[in-house]
Structure formats: structure tokens, C-alpha cells
Fold this protein.
Amino acid sequence: MPRESKKPLTEQEMAMRVAKEIKDGNCVNLGAGIPFPVVNYIPKDIWAMVHIEHGILGVGGTAQGPMKERDLMGLGRRPIFPVPGASCFSSVDSFTMLRGGHIDISVLGAFQVSEKGDVANWLLPGECPIVGGAMDIVGHVKRLIILMTHVTKKGEPKIVKECSLPVTGYGVVNMIVTDLAVIEVTPNGLLLKEIAPGYTTEVIQALTEPQLIVSPGLKEIILK
Amino acid sequence: MAINKVYNSCDEAITDISDGATIMFGGWGPAGDPENLIRALVKKGVKDIIGIANDPGNDRDGIIYSLYLLIKEKRVKKFIGSYHAWNPEFIKQFKAGELEFEVCSQGILAERIRAGGAGIYGFYTDVGADTLLAEGKEKRVINGSTCVLEMPLKADYALIKAHIADKWGNLRYRFTSQNFNPVMATAANVVIAEVENIVGVGSLDPNEIHTPGIYVDRIVKGEYYAKRV
């Protein structure tokens, strides 16, 4: 049988995969970068409200053309539009929702995730810090999903035994979705559940620092 | 009504702000940005500012917001906020040691300001308690979680932006332009609100006021708003 060539997920496909984690009734916080486009792939047959720290619950997506409003700004200072049922509020309320454990899922980017579920996403050596709201979010939302490329631009693993970068939160990550794999953080270690088309568990393991536990139900990432 | 909080121009509204003032700036990106007041501050030449805001602002495709102009002209000596907003001048001054940056997770920043405005002398939180940001902070274990003591923030002035004000200073905001504005309105000695419209007392529905007029000292209609977003 001819081997299918390796095909990492595009950023769009990564967002599509994360969207499958959202269940009916969920309130979901989306971070800057790759996570925000998840808003475009939430299944149409469920009721889910997207929260961003700017102070809105019920984001529909990026606004186009005449819908652009300077008073309705989202991540990356891009205009957004609200869905029916949306509400707007202050930063105090926005973070009460996050810190108070009212948000079901948060999807954030990261520099590194450790096998214990530690996440580092606020400080690179010699750089200016960029906390944003990350420290309020991690450890307080019911479920934290990290969405990131599997390796750095230099090809170094971002899933590591111990974070070498300053940590944002310890033991806070529930799931890691990358362009190559879907991994669940369990008390026993990292459980490899899905892999990108054309990849083998050996190739994924070679790009991941800690030992992965291969799920008995391992399958190819399905987007639809 | 005897009391008059309405000023004729942003220049007049900020005329007593002097060098070294601690100033809170509402807004996040162009939403809720007190841009006319900030331009007046730049024009007046106020320097050695201790600035408190979500971020130090930037120039995004010609939309200039937050402290961008003040930082560009090196008028800010210390900034308390949650991230750098990729403001190149801010990053440059920070790396050169010319500008002190007290970084604070965004929700804790809001809560410290809330404490400042609400007569709370400090609060414990587990946010960042096991990170580098906890260094030097008093710690205490509460219900099994390590927490740090966070101190309140207050300012000499708060420059905020709302959509509409009545002449007593009751304010309403639109969409995501609330952000830090309502909480900052509670935490400064002098609160100056820049708005797009000023209406008579009684014109706003009491059920729909976001910031009650008690918090607002000065109201001014912003002179110019860029249409483009």
C-alpha cells in the first residue's frame, strides 16, 4: 500500500480540530493568534458563546466592511461582531468570568508545555514581558486547551519534560492540539490520541521530548 | 443645577495635570481610548508620568491609541500594565532601562484598580502565585492554595472615554469600549471623562447607566475621532 505523504495541519485546520471540543452550552474563551479563528468553526447545531478578555461574551467573528466598529474591538485590535444573545461588560467582569471558574474552556497559544501540564507563554529570555490575561486564565477555567505548532521554527520540541522558560501556570493544561497531534494531559503522562495524516507515532515521538503514551484508540485527526 | 462639570476643550480639562503625575488611561486598543485627552496631554508637555493602563498603545495602520504618543516622546517614566502591545518604542525604552515596567496579569490589574477605588487595602489571589511575578510579594496559603497579596492601585488622575454623558457625569459606553474605563473612574482623585455626546440631566435612563456621575469630576466632548478602523 503506498504511504500517504506527511501532511501537518494548517492553522485553519488546527482551529477546526479544537472547535470539535466545544460542546452544547459551553462558554469558551479564545486567546490571541491561532486560537481566535476557532470562532469560525464552532458547530452550527450547538449553542456556544465565545468570550474574549476585551469584555464581550458572544463573539461571532471578525467584522468585515461596514460592520466594523471602533467600539467593538477584539484580539489584535481587529473589529469583531456580536452574535444574538451577546453581552458586553468591563474588564472587572470579564476576568470575574475567567478567574471565578465560570468559563468552560479556554484555548491559548504557548511557547512550551511540559508533560505535567505546565505552560509557559509570557516571557522569552531578554524580551519584554507579555502576560496579558494568561495568568488569570490558567488554573481557573474548567478546561485549558493549548493550541500551538508542535515544534519551534528551529525545529525544537515545544512539548518538553520541564519548561525551560518562565512558567505561567503549573499543572494547568488539559489538552494540547498541534499541527501534528492531539495529546491529552493525564496523571500518568501525555496520552497521544490523534496524529496528522501520514505521520507515525515514531515521528511524533521524535519531535516530542517526554515519552508519549500511545492511546489504544489512536487515530488520524478527523476534521469533519 | 449649580455644579458644572462640563469643560469646553480637552486642553482645559487637563490643564492642571503636572509633571510626575500618576495617571490611569482607560481603553484597550481604539475601543474606549481617551484619545483627545491624551493628545492634549502630549501638547501640554506633561512628563515623568507614571502611567497605568492595559497596554502602552501602538500605531496600527495609522490608528494611534493609548500612551503611544507619550511613550514616543519619552514622557512616561514608569508603566503599570499587562503587556507591551508590540509598541516598538516601549520595548526599546524598556530594554534600554529607560522605562520601568511593572507587569501585572490583566485581571489582577483590573482588580487592583477596583480595590483602589473601593476602599480595599489589598487582596489575596493565587493568580501568578507560583511564577516569577510573585517575587517579593507576601504569601499566604488559603484553602490549600498558595496566594500572594496584591496591593491596590490609585492615581492622581484617570482619563477615560465613554460614548455618552449627561451633564452630571453619568456615563454610558458602547460594546467593548468599557474595558478599564468604569473601574478607573472609581480609583483616581480627579476623573476626566471624554465623551462623544453630552446630554441634559434626565436624558439618560437610570436603568442603563454604566458609570454613575458620583465618580466623574470633569466631562468634555472629544474634538476629533478617526472614522477609520
Notes: Chain A touches chain B at residues 53-56, 68-74, 77, 79-80, 82, 88-92, 94-96, 98-99, 122-123, 126, 128-136, 139-140, 166-170 (CB under 8 Å).
